Task: structure prediction
Amino acid sequence: DAGVIQSPRHEVTEMGQEVTLRCKPISGHNSLFWYRQTMMRGLELLIYFNNNVPIDDSGMPEDRFSAKMPNASFSTLKIQPSEPRDSAVYFCASSSTGGNTIYFGEGSWLTVV
Amino acid sequence: SQQGEEDPQALSIQEGENATMNCSYKTSINNLQWYRQNSGRGLVHLILIRSNEREKHSGRLRVTLDTSKKSSSLLITASRAADTASYFCATDASGGYNKLIFGAGTRLAVHP
Result:
């Protein structure tokens, strides 16, 4: 059974460029989460979706960040324009309603230079 | 913002010893979970304890929860080198959405 799949695993981009991170949740899961992990701030919840609808985006840092979930099997997190301080590991995770465990992908390691 | 705070931030022990990590949180919760993260990997769920439970076991793991003190502990008994990882507590106060807020984590190093 495939887990949460994220792409790309690693990305190095120049400041000002657009970055798009992708996530395929576990089939049948209807909650999806985007987290960001840095040494300074730890693991922060950016946004979560339930049944493809954004429920809470209070963790999204600023307007440069946007997330979409066009269908139950795909989500994107976009940063435009990117800045060096966006360098972090971005995790996507999913869970099923009624289930308490969330399942993480392996992360997308973003470096903005 | 982080809900939980783990201590210690780092722990170094020898194989065979027990490792205890603590977590404190700020608000009322539905449940508290512990996750493990190996270097360069995603987080993996270890164990969940509900707000009406006081203690839970899973293999070599023992978790306690004291809601009056808003604290939890994770005990790993008879540690192994393969237990080397970061351990995070996460609290769910979302009432069904699994909105987990993670602490800063404890880095555990188990030396052979």
User: Anything to note?
Assistant: The mean pLDDT of chain A is 94. Residues 5 and 24 of chain A are 5 Å apart (CA to CA).
